[in-house]
Amino acid sequence: MTIFLILAPYGAYATLMLATSATVSLLAAALICLAVIAFDIARGRSIKILGLGSVIVFTAVGSYLTFVDPTPSTIAVKIAVDAGILLVSFGSILIGHPFTRQYALEQVDAEIARQPGFLYANYLITAAWTAATLLMLIGNIAVLYVPALPLWTGLLIAFAARNAAVGFTRWYPQYRAAKYGTPPAGAPPSR
């Protein structure tokens, strides 16, 4: 359930980009982000860096399209969103608070969270998501600047990168537990 809630705004955005305008897609994604934030607050959880950053990115790009220039192509919009999410993800690493740590802290007990490998695991998992976002950005840039590439190339890269990051997020904590003989320290389990 946790991974579903985290990815819901992006899934809605990507799906709606195929069926409606970029502005509507971005607005829907921002509203879903806000709903997830409200859900977390209602359950006594923290406001997440990724959720808040995503609201800002979706709203900023949507506002640009609404108030400044409604003409950018779908690929240009995807590039802007990917660049914004990359900034949020990489920025969380740079400021010393990998965004996955907030989710993990809500899933593990305090003893696990104090383990030295816990923060390291979250840096690694956040780095995997940052790399996935970078690959999505590169895929969309390639589609924009290499006209011979079919549009589905960007979708294929995004799908593969996202699924690789989800897989790593699920696998790495279990790997650490097996290797070091400690309970999984890192990403939240999927439910």
Describe the structure.
The chain has eight helices and no strands. By secondary structure, the protein is mainly α. It has one domain (2-180).
Topology (elements, then pairings):
Layout: H1 2-19, H2 22-42, H3 49-67, H4 74-94, H5 99-105, H6 110-113, H7 116-145, H8 152-180
Helix pairs in contact: 1-2, 2-3, 3-4, 4-7, 5-7, 7-8
Compact summary:
Helices cover 78% and strands 0% of the residues. It is an all-alpha fold and 191 residues long.
Oligomer: single chain
The total strand number stands at 0
Overall tally of structural domains? 1
Provide the β-strand percentage band: under 5%
Main beta sheet strand tally, sense and closure: none
Residues in helices, as a percent range: over 70%
Q: Structural class, judged by helices and strands? A: mainly alpha
Give the SSE string: HHHHHHHH
Shape: globular
Mean pLDDT: 91
Question: Tags for this entry?
Answer:
disordered C terminus, 191 residues, 8 helices, 0% strand, mainly alpha
